[in-house]
Design goal:
alpha/beta; binds magnesium ion; binds thiamine diphosphate; Rossmann fold; 322 residues
């Protein structure tokens, strides 16, 4: 792959930013000031970055409960995201949504849904609108392996294939739905085969390896944009933490030890950084400078969130249908 040093640096910045933001959330969560459940994407960061790096600002992304990486990689505003976790008026959903309802339409992050598979049909609808207007946008929907067990997944694939809509279905296959493993839920674990049932081209990437995701996503997104119809991209990855909240997943006895070993042996940040340095893709000093700048940005975002006002009591019903 021919990437310039500038592109490599941009990818690294996006990757380390998600990692560091989530580590900061973990550090401060025990203070109980963030009144929202959190689903961390530690270990899965490369998927968001590898996919979103191919998107234009006006392309659409629809996210799920594990939303932080998608939001940040698509260009969502960091202070507004942190303020949302603190349920503040300055949050990206005005403090009413929390971590599972991040939204920033200005940059094409159209919404996140706590309903498993909930945003898959939304992406199909957005792609339909784009096709109808002829504005050449693609719509990406991120979902987990368990979302592929919902009826709406199949309905969405069928309609998208039938109308040749520019949808990119991205499955982050971390093998688990809360605490049940894929092998305990499905006869056929080859998820790409389900796309094949609708004649949708399927791609697979190593979700721990940013360059693998970047390469596969590039081909998949280009195909969707060229009018050939929807594509499916499966990214194999491992989440580092429990299903939600913070802490060590090792204390939970449902995880196979080989999954956990695999997870911690294959750190997306380390894999990418080692490649950069081994192949001299960018100067080491630039990497260190990014780490420092990102730390400062995160400090400022948390301060902004902590100092922001809560929604006024009398306005809690605002934004609700009456
Ligand atoms: C329709 C629906 N059913 C069940 C739940 C409860 N639930 C929340 S997350 C989750 C598992 C999701 O697993 P997966 O789609 O693989 O995503 P991951 O958490 O692994 O990223 C479940 C069952 C829900 N939110 N919505
Ligand atoms: Mg899963």
């Amino acid at each position: 792959m021919n990437l310039t040093a500038e592109q490599i640096i941009r990818l690294y910045r996006s990757l380390i930013r998600i990692r560091k933001v989530e580590q900061k959330i973990e550090e401060l969560y025990p203070r109980d000031e963030m009144k929202t459940p959190v689903h961390l994407s530690l270990g899965q960061e490369a998927v968001s970055v590898g996919v979103c790096s191919h998107l234009k600002r006006e392309d659409y992304v629809f996210s799920n409960h594990r939303s932080h990486g998608h939001y940040l990689a698509k260009g969502g505003d960091l202070p507004a995201m942190i303020a949302e976790l603190y349920c503040k008026e300055t949050g990206c959903a005005a403090g009413r949504g929390g971590s599972m309802h991040l939204v920033d339409p200005q940059v094409g992050l159209m919404g996140s849904s706590a309903i498993v598979a909930g945003s898959i049909p939304h992406a199909v609808g957005a792609a339909f609108a784009s096709w109808y207007r002829g504005d050449n946008r693609v719509a990406v929907t991120f979902f987990g392996d368990a979302a592929m067990e919902e009826g709406v997944f199949f309905e969405s694939l069928n309609l998208a294939a039938l109308r040749k809509l520019p949808v990119v279905f991205v499955c982050e296959n971390n093998y688990y739905a809360v605490c049940s493993r894929l092998s305990a839920r499905q006869v056929n674990e080859r998820l790409t085969a389900r796309a094949g049932a609708f004649d949708i081209p399927a791609y697979q990437a190593d979700g721990s390896d940013l360059l693998s995701v970047y390469e596969q996503a590039g081909t998949a997104i280009a195909a969707a944009r060229s009018g050939q119809g929807p594509v499916f991209l499966e990214c194999l990855c491992q989440r580092w933490r429990g299903h939600n909240g913070i802490g060590d997943p090792g204390r939970e006895n449902y995880r196979r030890s080989e999954d956990l070993d695999d997870a911690f042996r294959r750190c997306p940040v380390e894999i990418f950084k080692n490649k950069i340095l081994a192949q001299n893709l960018a100067p080491e000093a630039d990497i260190a400078a990014i780490d420092e700048a990102v730390d400062g940005e995160i400090e400022a975002a948390f301060l902004f969130a902590q100092q922001s006002p809560l929604p006024k009591k009398e306005e809690l019903g605002r934004f609700l249908f009456e």
